[in-house]
């Protein structure tokens, strides 16, 4: 049986960057994401270096299961990786059990 290994912060950031690239490459998702977040094209370039922005990218994916599944399938990730990366980037202070 495989043992669960927690995702590192570096891997979470890499997954979030991959998610951003997936959104930008998708002609339907890109304008939705940019409109919803009120972004301009230059914001994507600057945001790619900002962990808080990358958290928001994962939040966008997590809004719809269909987005999570499409991204996960495209990248060969388990769908749970998106939520796991989001939790890692948020840090332990963001965890709650309510």
Question: Could you outline the blueprint of secondary structure elements for this entry?
Answer:
Elements: H1 9-25, H2 29-37, H3 41-47, H4 51-62, H5 65-75, H6 80-90
Describe what you observe in this structure.
- With 98 residues, the protein is mostly helical.
- The protein is 68% helix and 0% strand.
- α1 (9-25) packs across α6.
- The protein is globular, with a radius of gyration of 13 Å.
- The mean pLDDT is 90.
How would you describe this structure in keywords?
globular; 6 helices
Provide a short characterization of the protein structure:
With 98 residues, this protein is an all-alpha fold.
Class of secondary structure makeup: mainly alpha
How large a portion of the residues is in β-strands, by DSSP E? under 5%
Taken in chain order, the helices and strands follow as HHHHHH
Whole-Å distance between the termini?
A: 31 Å
Shape: globular
- Number of E-state strands: 0
The description of the largest β-sheet is: none
Runs in which pLDDT lies below 50 for 5 or more consecutive residues are none
Rg computed from alpha carbons, rounded to a whole number of angstroms? 13 Å
Helicity range: 55-70%
Could you tell me the mean pLDDT? 90
Number of helices: 6
């Amino acid at each position: 049986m495989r043992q669960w290994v927690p995702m590192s912060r570096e891997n979470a950031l890499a997954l979030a960057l991959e998610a951003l690239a997936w959104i930008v490459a998708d002609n339907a998702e890109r304008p939705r994401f940019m409109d919803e977040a009120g972004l301009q094209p230059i914001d994507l370039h600057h945001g790619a270096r900002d962990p808080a922005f990358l958290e928001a990218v994962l939040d966008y994916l997590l809004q719809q299961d269909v987005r999570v599944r499409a991204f996960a399938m495209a990248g060969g990730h388990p769908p749970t990786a998106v939520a796991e990366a989001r939790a890692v980037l948020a840090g332990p202070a963001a965890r709650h059990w309510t």
